[in-house]
Amino acid sequence: MDDWRARFLASGDDADLPIVDAHQHYFDIEAHCYPWLNDRPLRPFRYGDYSSICRSFLPQDYRRLTGQHRIVQTVVIEGEWDPATPADEVDFIESLARQEPTLVAMVGQVWLDREDAPSLLREYGKHPLVRGVRHKPTVTTREDWREDFVAPGSMRDPRWREGYARLAANGLHFELQAPWWHLPEAAELARDFPDVTIVVNHTALPADRSPEGLAGWRDNLALLAREPNVALKISGICIPGQAWPVEANRVVVNDAISILDVSRCAFASNYPVDGVVNSLSEVLDGFKTIVRDRSRADRLALFHDNARRIYRLT
């Protein structure tokens, strides 16, 4: 891996660029239950009809799609496995890691406001693959959100925060997936628990590309970026009905990097979920195109070095 890193720094050629995919998923829907994939009717989703990905997706499927891109390591994020047995997903991913050398870390599912959270966090903290956890907090629509928003399972819910307070002691970080208008709550969380790193998923979901929508996204992301214990994964920015739109996504990518700085951003594929709209190569080629004029060190940081640091990879 260090050889590819040195080779890229010498050549600057995208073909030599080593990539750590900081956000991808594996599913086996024949053997295991993922309610959002197995149940019918399908749920509302920001990309629309996602029936095309309601199938198993395993390491051999991922490898087949990587094309010319040099994926050297990946981080598997919990895939909304049956919430009754979240630890079983860790066992499943561990079984895949024994056969897939690029699979080197994962993020487990937890429900921070449940009674089993303390024991689950202790178990995850001892597991060699698990680096952090994800519990999508309760959110509301942009129109209904208020500055004093509190709901069961939200980032301001005292019971939810009791679970969150146990992360640092177990050596775990938190993966946050929430729309950008909830980032003020995340900023409070970052301040109140400075020993816990928050890794924001999917660029804080800038789905509304209107001038007003992008302005709100920028302002809230800048608010959160004031907290030093925050990182951002630039992923999940496909636009329904469009091949990966470099021009439409350029502003999102560049603004995100400008707001948080190169050192706190990492690219990721969100595959196979983003396969609803685009191929894996289209996603990675789009990111490469947008940052092609940046320095070799910056490109290496965005595609490789930052993810290795955030997820403590060896």
UniProtKB/TrEMBL annotation:
InterPro entries: Amidohydro-rel, Metal_Hydrolase, Metallo-dep_Lactonases. SUPFAM superfamilies: Metallo-dependent hydrolases. GO terms for molecular function: hydrolase activity. Residues 20-313 form the Amidohydrolase-related domain. Gene3D superfamilies: Metal-dependent hydrolases. Pfam families: Amidohydro_2. It comes from the Bacteria. Belongs to the metallo-dependent hydrolases superfamily. This is Thioesterase. It comes from Pseudomonas frederiksbergensis.
